Amino acid sequence: MKAIDKSFKNNKDHYIIFGLIILVYMLSINTDLAELSQHRDINIPSGFFYYTLSVDVLVILSLILILFYRKLGVILFPFFVMIHFSLHNYFLSTYLYSDITVLFLYVGLGLLAIIPRWNSMK
């Protein structure tokens, strides 16, 4: 059985793509923290922050699972990002372009880096 090479030298694209996805998702987290600091001025429900920040943590955990080559993270990541998008859409009627961009990057680039590694793990 052949071991998978997980070195940075041979997998730069994999780590650069997920670095880009994390960087763009940080825009969503920044939006959540900005809304937390202004929640009295814009009348946001108090439970909204507990929901969104817990979903943010779940998104980061699913990205960590992906980086450790776990298929569960590959399935949960877009699910949690869509939950985050839906929470913003339901509570604030805002359309977060950062969440949509993360999903496009994940589907367009991220899966191109993940699927070949699944085939090499068999």
Description:
- The chain is an all-alpha fold and 122 residues long.
- The protein contains 4 helices and no strands.
- α1 runs antiparallel to α2, α1 runs antiparallel to α4 and α2 runs antiparallel to α3.
Write the layout of secondary structure elements.
Layout: H1 12-37, H2 47-67, H3 71-92, H4 97-121
- SSE ordering: HHHH
Strand-residue fraction? under 5%
The largest sheet is: none
Low-confidence parts, pLDDT < 50 over ≥5 residues?
none
Helix percentage range: over 70%
Look at the helices and sheets and give the structural class: mainly alpha
- Rg is 16 Å
Please, how many helices? 4
N-end to C-end Cα span: 9 Å
Mean pLDDT: 82
The strand count comes to: 0
Overall geometric form: elongated
Main attributes of the structure:
single chain
Give a short overview.
With 122 residues, the protein is an all-alpha fold. It has four helices and no strands.
